[in-house]
Request: fold
Amino acid sequence: MKRIGILTRDCAGINACIRAVVRTASFYNIEVIGIFRGYQGLINGEVKVLTRRSVSGIINQGGTILKTARSKQFLTEEGQLKAVRTLQENNIEGLIVVGGNGSLTGAHLLATKYGISTVGVPATIDNDINGVDLSIGADTAVNVALDALDKIRDTATSLERIFVVEVMGRECGWIALQVALAGGCEEVLIPEKDFGITKMCEDITEGNIKGKVSWIIIVAEGKAKAVDIANKITEITGLETRVAVLGHIQRGGRPTRIDRILAAQLGSYAVEILKEGKSDVCVTKRDNTFYTLPLEEAIKPKEIKVDNYYKLVKILL
Reply:
C-alpha cells in the first residue's frame, strides 16, 4: 500500500490522531492524503497531501485541521459514486475514517458496497460506539463540562439557588452521568431512565426545609430541555431556578492526556491494520490491548449500563 486517505469529524483529540496516522504512515513510506470537510469534501475532491511537517504542532489543538461537514449528498448513490471516483483518481488505496456512528456507517458502506479498504477510528464525545470502551474526545468533553460545572457550583452555593445544567447527549446519557457523579450533583436526567418531576420537586422542597440551599441537576439534551425542567421546578416548589446550557463548548478545548494518548495509539494502529490488508473494521483498545471489531458491529446501537452510575449519584447526593 503506497497511498492512504484520512477524513474526520470534529472533537478534541482528532488532530492528535491525524498526526499519528501521518507519521506512522511516513515511517512505512506510505503517503497520506488529507480529505477536507468529511464525506462532502471527498465528493468535491477537496484533498491535499499531508507530510510530517503538515501535522507539526497540532497535537494539543482541539477540533480538526481537516475541517468537517455533514453531507446529505453522500446518502445518495450519485454522491457515493463521486466519492469513490475521488479515491480512484487520487490513487488512494485505503481510507481511515475518524468519527462517530455516522462517519463509521459511511466507512462500512464504502467497504461493502464499493470494495474500498476502510478502517474506522472511534471519535465521539457521546462515547456511544458499540463495542468500544472509550472513544477519542469523550474524556475531554467530560472534563470541559466538569470545569464549567465547578464554576456554576460556586454561584449556586453563593446565591443559594437551584441550577439545571444541560449537557450534550441526544440519545446517550454517558456525559451527563460522568459529569453528575464527578461533580457531586444531586440529580441527573438521561435518555436511558425515566424520572418523575413531582418526586424530584418533593426532594428539593424537603431538602430546602432541612437547610439545603443549593441543588444542581444535570440533564442530557436528549432527555429534556433545561429551561423546561427549571420552569417546572419553580412552578411546583416556588424556589428560584437558573439554567445553564453548556452546548458546543463540550466539543472543543485542548485534549486531555487520555485523549491525546488514545488518539495517538488508535491512529497509529489504524495504519498498521490497513497495511496488513484488513478492511471494514473499527480499531479500539481494551485492557491495554488493541484489537479490531467489524464496522457492522460498531455501528449498532450501544447499550450503556447506567444503573450503577445512577444509583451512586443518588446515594451520594
Observations:
- The first strand starts at residue 3 and ends at 8.
- The mean pLDDT is 95.
- DSSP finds eleven helices and eleven strands in the chain.
